[in-house]
Specification:
The chain has nine helices and four strands; from the N terminus they run αββαββααααααα. Helix 1 crosses helix 3, helix 6 crosses helix 9 and helix 7 crosses helix 8. The longest helix is centred in the middle third of the chain and has 16 residues. It has 216 residues and is α+β, with helices and mostly antiparallel strands.
Length: 216
């Protein structure tokens, strides 16, 4: 749960991109969505266990989007990955991904069908399981009333709010969070890795107090 939360807080992925689809199709993030860009500039398209063991400060883990509600055929967002910098912090999404890879190694020919976030049997989670686990965690930390006010979608909303609080332009927020806005994408699709890291890093260090009436 913590690893998934750290990743969603950095990337804004929808829960529908994590869980099993009723059709049985692979519409969730898999191990093949991952690649590594080393601090030296070299790129590793299919990381091995050794590559994950050698992940170091300054390296980047790139997480390519899968098909989603706003991009069912991968025509808009899929060329533009989320960027997870390896900074050594305990909240690092890059290290959360690394730990998954090291604890559950995946053969190269299985990466396209192996879910990035999986249960003990290697199957993608269901919505019901993740919803219940998040509610249980939040209730233990903050009480049942607070837990009812949040969902997995709160990570996506929270990232957008934090980016806004960090003065990130709206159109860049739309690109980072992959909202369907073709006009914005045409203008900002060339935003590179450095800009992605710049804005999402700033978002990690702001405090915002946005409130919705239905959550009061």
């Amino acid at each position: 749960i913590l690893r998934l939360g750290r990743t969603l807080w950095r990337t804004g992925h929808r829960l529908g991109e994590i869980i099993a689809h009723p059709s049985g199709e692979i519409n969730f993030l898999t191990r093949s969505c991952l690649s590594i860009t080393k601090a030296s500039g070299s790129k590793i398209a299919v990381p091995s266990t050794r590559d994950w063991q050698q992940l170091a400060s300054g390296d980047l883990v790139l997480l390519a989007p899968c098909a989603s509600k706003s991009d069912q055929f991968g025509e808009e967002h899929c060329p533009f990955p989320s960027v997870l910098p390896c900074d050594g912090s305990p909240r690092s999404a890059a290290l959360a991904i690394r730990d998954i890879e090291l604890e559950q190694p995946c053969a190269p020919d299985e990466r396209e069908t192996t879910p990035l976030f999986a249960d003990e049997s290697g199957q993608p989670f269901t919505y019901a399981i993740l919803h219940a686990e998040l509610r249980k965690l939040l209730a233990a930390l903050f009480g049942e009333r607070v837990a009812k006010a949040f969902s997995w979608h709160s990570f996506r909303i929270g990232l957008a709010c934090a980016l806004h609080a960090a003065d990130c332009p709206d159109a860049v927020i739309q690109l980072i969070c992959r909202w369907a806005n073709p006009a914005s994408l045409r203008v900002y699709r060339q935003v590179g890795i450095e800009k992605n890291v710049f804005w999402t890093e700033r978002a990690q260090h702001v405090t915002f107090d946005a409130t919705r009436v239905n959550n009061l």
